[in-house]
Amino acid sequence: MADSEEQALEERLKSALWFSIGKIVDEETLKLGVNATPQFIGALTEMVWAQIENVSTDLKNFARHAGRSTISTDDVMLLSRRNEGLEALLRSYMNTQKPGKPSRKKR
Known about the structure:
- The protein is an all-alpha fold.
- It has helices at 3-32, 38-65, 73-79, 84-97.
- The protein starts with a helix and ends in a 10-residue tail after the last helix.
- Belongs to the TAF9 family. CENP-S/MHF1 subfamily.
């Protein structure tokens, strides 16, 4: 993919993320009776984008370290290992998606 195509795709993805975050912020500000500036939404979008980039890099590296070219649920669980609440939520979700396959036990 050419650099200009990659940049265009990244801008479209960032725009979609900004729109989604804006909708969530609007819903929450209505519930709380507060206001959020467009600058806040923009800053939050940039922070979420940076986190997505970090997570995607980590997942790609975990898969590569395991000798795979595809990211698996094991990689996602490895990423969540330091956040017990997230790990429990993901395990619960995985168990509902694959009821026949037992999840790995926590060490």
